[in-house]
Design a protein that fits this description.
Keywords: Membrane, Transmembrane, Transmembrane helix. There is one protein chain. The protein has about 50 residues and is mainly alpha-helical. It has a domain of about 30 residues. The chain is rod-shaped.
């Protein structure tokens, strides 16, 4: 009985680690999108002011 519970625990831990890595990647991805849209918005305001 000890063996299956250990493998389940190992799978669970690896799943949590992969989930954390995926979550970090998603957060970085959305942050880069926000930074890009913010930069585009600032550039748009500059162009509108110069014109």
């Amino acid at each position: 009985m000890c063996r299956p519970s250990f493998t389940l625990l190992h799978i669970y831990i690896s799943f949590i680690c992969n989930y954390k890595v995926g979550f970090i990647l998603i957060v970085v991805y959305f942050n880069s999108i926000n930074i890009g849209s913010r930069a585009a918005f600032l550039n748009y305001n500059k162009l509108r002011k110069t014109n």
